[in-house]
Each structure stands twice: as structure tokens, then as C-alpha cells.
Design brief:
Elements (H helix, E strand, L loop, with lengths): L12 H11 L4 E7 L2 E6 H18 L6 E5 L4 H12 L3 E4 L6 H10 L4 E4 L2 H10 L8 E4 L13 E3 H10 L1 H14 L5 E6 L9 E5 H14 L7 E3 L7 H14 L2 E4 L6 H8 L3 E3 L2 H16 L3 H22 L6 H22 L6 E4 L6 H9 L4 E7 L4 E5 L12 E2 L4 E4 L4 E5 L6 E2 L3 H7 L6 E9 L6 E6 L4 E2 L5 E2 L1 H8 L5 E7 L6 E7 L1 H10 L7 H5 L2 H18 L10 E6 L19 H7 L1 H7 L5 E9 L5 E9 L1 E2 L11
């Protein structure tokens, strides 16, 4: 069924590409920094590159309905690969580039991928390691030829050769390509994206052209995105957010997608690009704030005083100005002076000077962190979404931005809360199905199209904004009947630059306890300034003065939690600092850096038991995975400390 507002000529991503090439042919579509130099492709050039690749796919024998996996860092070539796959009626399946071979094997086998477009020798080697288990795999197309000279060419193809073949056989293959393009509509599968697998095996989420195009069109209009905007594509291509921002919205609004040279240069490249549209998860904003705090601690007394003075004013005035509210003349003049001396240069250093629209999502963001960026004059807003929704469920409108809500329903989205408090939605972006998994599809999406999010929340009567409490499976009760919501506490803890990650336990218990991961950069910098020597993360994490610092941070959070009439019972009574950082390679986090709470609880059950005893220390041994894939173990004697708690605020009658 073709949607009326899109028109039959714009019901697939390749048709949007053709529109952009014709209408915005000379406008920048892609930029990439390589060897320190920015390269640019216009929409007409991008269309030519994609067309040549699509013709090359046909010559390889790609059939309609085939799955083509794509793995590598964010590069224009891989976005072209996705659209070229769509052009021939195949389904692109992007993978996480840092996934180990076994993780890739599961996805490649599950989706029965016939071809893989891989970045370089490293990714090709992973696939070769598991190819015997991939019965459907017919070939690997590699982009970077370095190191590939002596490989067996039987099922290996160079990206540039595939494109050249497509160009050479354009006249012969174009009729078939045009026929396949014409056969597609809104019901055709656009992409398959795998969930992060927080509670089990990842599921393949099938998203149609209707899901992707309707969501991209409506949300681009919501924030007035246009050909004049730009975005930096640095988040994993396997994540639904990157696909929506870098394909769905980019092709609907025809804005430019810029790709950094590497993860290490991303911050520098962000500053050079100066995007007008920017998305980052809370962890990224936390990291940037930590960097700012470290730099200010090392600054001269005069700079620290200027920073403290003008940031205090900005914290009060900045958000009001962002929301169009009036402020006093004196405060406004002081804000403008601070903009000249402090906040302006700081925004430029962060690479956010030109950001017109910024979003964060994925995890709840601490109010203090959220307010910091808005005080700088950055239009940072929150959205709420998931892979199954093509990202957008709710988003915040300009002038209605708050740290404790995630906005009102996105255009075309309906919301409802069931009797258990779980959030449900229905929208044009709602996924078609979980691939080869009808049971999970039926459990998640009912016949009327309502999708269960798995999150607990409520809609405020006055504002109509949605508030998310936590994952419904994680929300529980303490033994006294009061609510237990671990994410609420964890996000408050992570505002402190010393704390990288926190995992709180307490469901069905008398009180709450916590595991802490310190931030090695922030705490390491602090240790250097205080002449504290250490040789490893484990040694620094166990230092008595580090424990004292974290103990104080948690006590401050307890004081804040005590003021919340519903969640004041979630104060942390005891904690320990883990001897290792939580790691996706060890199964403790997803590739999108979400905590796998159940796995952590099982893996460290001895530590949880000690926290709920009278013990003041515990010896433990933990298996770890090294960068080269080898397994090993580390042992530690961990200290357990009590934390000050505060009288609870009474619940109003």
C-alpha cells in the first residue's frame, strides 16, 4: 500500500536518492576524512556510485530477497552498499564492526547472508574464521585491499572491481536493475537490524520502506531538517539510530552525512565538520563533560574562577533563553559576556558551535548533565525510541524541553500505558516482524499493531509528556513495599566524572547496594595530581582514597534520592568498586553499551552476597577476554564500604 503523502515515486530509499540527484544534484551528500583530507560526494555523484555498485551486485548474482551483510566503520561506501542492496531488491544487514567472529557468525547464519561487504583484512579474517558454519555465504566483498594480496580469490571480491564491472556492463544490466526498482513499494523490506540482545540472543528486526520513509519524513519535518543541514555519522551502523539519521532522514531531507577518519579522531573531526544536527547517547555527553572537568581542574586559578562564575550564570539563564523566556537585563548581559569568554569557546572545543538540533537517547540522562549542555546554548533534547519503532516513539518539542521527561508522541505515533505501567505504542514506524521468530513477534506486537516496549512509565496529565521510570523487568519493590528503580539511581551516580558505570541491586531486599566502575581517565588524572602511583585499573580502583571519593559521591546521591517521595527507598547502603571494567567482550554489556543486569548478577553473585552480609571485604576471581580473543582470569581482594543514608521524604497523602 502506497502512502498518499509520500507519492508512488518516493516509496523507496533508491527513489528518494533519484529525487535528490535530480533536485539537489550539486549539493553535498557525503563527506569523509581520509589521510587528513576531507573528500566530498554530491548527490549526483553518490547516485552514480550506488548505481554502479548495484549493477555489480546483479553481475555477482544477487537475487531479490537475499541478505547482504555490511561490516566496517562509518564510511560512505557502506551507506552506498546498503542503498545498492535495496536497489536490487536485497536486504542490507549492518553488523557491529567490533563484534567478535562468533557474534558475527550468529547473525550471518541467522539471516542466511549470501554476501558480506567488509571493510578490511581484519573483518575478512573474522568471516573466514567462521565461514565453514555459514552454508549460505557465497562471497565477501572487501573495501581496503591492503594485506589481501595472497588471499584465495575464489570467493573474495574487491569493492572497486565490483563497481567497475557494473559500469562496464551498464547497458546490459540496467534493464534488470530498473525492473527491480519498479517492483518495489512501501511493503518491500528496507533493512534488517538486530537488537542489542540485552536479555538473550539478538533478534532480527524487519523494517519496511513504509517504516523507514514515513518515520524519516515526519521527524525531519518535525525539526525542520533540510538540504542545508549536516550530521556526523560516527555511531555503529548496526544501530537503528545511525540508519535513521544517516539514511532515512538524510535521504528525506537531502542533508549531508559526514564520516570521521576514525574513532580516535572523531572529536577533532566533529569540530571541523561543525554539524547542525547531532545525536549522541548519554555516555558520550558524560565523557565530554568529564573531559571538561579534568581540563578545568588543571587550569589556572583565573580560568577556574571565570569558568565557575559564568557557568553558574549560564546554568540559570541559558535554558530560559533556549525556551524563549525573558531574563533580566543584567543576567542577559552577563550571559553574553560569558558566551564570549567561556561558553562560546567551550562549545567550539566540543565541536557543537553550529548544532541547531541535538538529541540524546538510549539511556536516561542525568538532569545535571542535561542542564549543563543546555546552559551552553546547545538545543539538546531527549527522544525515546527503540529498533522496533524505527527509533522514534516520543521526542521533545522546542520550548518544551525537560530533563525528567522524553517528550510527547512523535508525529503519527499513538501511546498508551497498560495497567502494569508498561508503555505501548502504535505508529507507521512499527516493525513488520522479528525475522524467523513468529513467537516473539506475537509477544511484542498485537494484531491491532500495538507494540510492547518493555519499559515502565506514565504520561503526565498536565503536559502530555512521557516519563520513563525503568525497564519493566527491572522495576521492583523493596521488602517494605517501596518502589525499586535501579536506572534512576545509576544515572544520578554517573553524573560524577569519577564514575563510569554503576549497577544497583535491591529488588526483594531490605535495601540497595551497588557495583561501581571508576572512570580511568578522570580518576587517573586525579591520581596524578595527588601523587598517587598505580600500575593498573585494578590497583587504582582499590586505592583507599579512591574509595573515599566514591563513598562521598554516593552519599551525595543518597541525599538527592531522599528528596524523591516515591524512590527515596533506593538509597545505596553498601558498595564496592569492581576490579575490572564491564566489557561487551565479556558479555557484561551490549555492543551499544547497555548493562546486561541479569548476566552481571549471575557472574558476580558472590559479590552481591557479600554486599548483603556483614563482610568488609571479599576475595574473587573473574574470567576475562583479552583483545586478541584469548581467555584469562583476574583475582582481587575487594573492599566493601557502608554509605551514609538520609531520612526518607514522606509520600503525600
Amino acid at each position: 500500500m502506497t502512502k498518499k503523502n509520500a507519492g508512488p515515486e518516493l516509496n523507496t530509499v533508491p527513489k528518494l536518492l533519484a529525487r535528490n540527484a535530480a533536485k539537489y544534484g550539486d549539493a553535498a551528500a557525503y563527506r569523509e576524512k581520509e589521510y587528513g583530507i576531507w573528500q566530498t560526494w554530491t548527490w549526483s555523484q553518490a547516485a552514480d556510485e550506488i548505481n554502479a555498485l548495484a549493477l555489480g551486485f546483479l553481475d555477482l548474482g544477487v537475487k531479490q530477497g537475499d541478505h547482504i551483510a555490511i561490516v566496517g566503520r562509518n564510511r560512505p561506501y557502506f551507506y552506498w552498499s546498503m542503498v545498492a542492496a535495496q536497489s536490487v531488491g536485497a536486504v542490507p544487514v549492518p553488523l557491529y564492526k567490533d563484534a567478535v567472529a562468533e557474534e558475527m557468525a550468529y547473525v550471518l547464519d541467522h539471516c542466511t547472508a549470501r554476501f558480506v561487504v567488509a571493510e578490511d583484512q581484519e573483518q575478512v579474517d573474522k568471516i573466514i574464521d567462521v565461514q565453514d558454519d555459514l552454508k549460505a555465504l557465497d562471497g565477501v566483498i572487501y573495501l581496503d585491499p591492503r594485506g589481501m594480496r595472497k588471499y584465495d580469490r575464489g570467493a573474495l571480491f574487491e569493492f572497486s572491481d565490483i563497481q567497475q564491472t557494473g559500469r562496464d556492463k551498464r547497458a546490459e544490466l540496467s534493464p534488470e536493475l530498473n525492473a527491480r526498482l519498479d517492483a518495489q513499494d512501501y511493503n518491500t523490506t528496507c533493512v534488517m537490524l538486530y537488537t542489542s540482545g540485552t536479555t538473550g540472543r539478538p533478534k532480527g528486526v524487519v523494517l519496511s520502506n513504509e517504516n523507514i520513509i514515513e518515520t524519516g519524513r515526519a521527524t525531519a519535518e518535525f525539526d525542520n531538517l533540510s538540504v542545508n543541514d549536516s550530521v556526523l555519522a560516527y555511531l555503529p551502523m548496526a544501530w537503528v539510530g545511525d540508519f535513521i539519521f544517516s539514511i532515512s532522514q538524510a535521504y528525506n531531507a537531502a542533508f549531508c552525512v559526514a564520516c570521521p577518519e576514525s574513532g580516535e579522531t572523531m572529536q577533532h573531526d566533529l569540530r571541523e565538520v561543525g554539524p547542525t544536527y547531532f545525536f549522541a547517547p548519554p555516555a558520550y555527553f558524560e565523557g565530554m563533560l568529564t573531559s571538561v572537568q579534568i581540563r578545568m581542574e588543571d587550569a589556572s586559578p583565573l580560568k577556574r574562577k571565570l569558568y565557575k562564575t559564568f557557568m553558574a550564570n549560564a546554568a540559570d539563564v541559558g535554558p530560559k533563553l533556549m525556551d524563549g523566556k525573558s531574563v533580566g537585563l543584567g543576567a542577559h548581559l552577563k550571559y553574553q559576556l560569558g558566551k564570549l569568554l567561556v561558553t562560546g569557546p567551550l562549545k567550539n572545543t566540543l565541536g557543537l558551535s553550529r548544532v541547531r538540533v541535538g538529541y540524546t537517547a538510549g539511556e536516561a540522562i542525568g538532569p545535571e548533565l542535561f542542564d549543563f549542555y543546555r546552559s551552553l546554548g546547545i538545543n539538546l533534547k531527549q527522544l525515546y525510541g527503540q529498533t522496533e519503532a524505527s527509533v522514534f516513539i516520543t521526542q521533545q518539542r522546542d520550548g518544551e524541553v525537560r530533563a525528567d521527561t522524553v517528550g510527547t508522541p512523535s508525529p503519527g505515533v499513538e501511546l498508551r500505558i497498560d495497567e502494569s505501567g508498561e508503555v505501548f505504542y502504535r505508529s507507521p514506524g512499527s516493525f513488520v516482524e522479528y525475522y524467523e521468530n513468529p513467537e516473539s513477534t506475537a509477544d511484542t506486537k498485537d494484531p491491532e499493531g500495538w507494540v510492547a516496549t518493555g519499559d515502565a512509565g506514565f504520561i503526565e496529565t498536565a503536559s502530555g509528556q512521557l516519563r520513563i521510570i525503568d525497564r519493566i523487568k527491572d522495576v521492583g519493590k523493596l521488602n517494605d513495599g517501596t518502589m525499586f528503580a535501579p536506572k534512576f539511581v545509576e544515572n544520578k551516580l554517573k553524573f560524577y566524572s569519577n564514575i563510569l558505570e554503576a549497577v544497583v541491586f535491591g529488588n526483594g531486599k531490605d535495601n540497595c547496594v551497588a557495583f561501581i566502575n571508576i572512570d580511568l581517565l578522570a580518576v587517573g588524572n586525579w591520581a596524578e595530581r595527588n601523587n598517587i602511583a598505580y600500575s593498573s585499573y585494578q590497583e587504582l580502583a582499590g586505592h583507599p582514597r579512591v574509595y573515599e571519593m566514591i563513598q562521598e559521591n554516593i552519599a551525595n546521591v543518597n541525599a538527592s534520592i531522599a528528596e524523591d517521595e516515591f524512590l527515596s527507598g533506593c538509597q545505596i547502603t553498601r558498595f564496592l568498586i569492581l576490579h575490572k571494567q564491564l566489557d561487551a567482550d565479556d558479555g557484561e554489556m551490549t555492543r551499544t553499551l547497555k548493562v546486561r543486569r541479569k548476566i552481571i548478577a549471575e557472574k558476580f553473585d558472590d559479590l552481591i552476597g557479600a554486599l548483603y552480609s556483614d563482610a568488609t571485604n571479599i576475595k574473587t576471581t573473574t574470567e576475562v577476554t583479552y583483545e586478541d580473543g584469548r581467555k584469562g582470569s583476574i583475582s582481587a581482594d575487594l573492599e566493601i564500604r557502608d554509605v551514609k543514608t538520609f531520612p526518607r521524604k514522606q509520600v503525600a497523602a
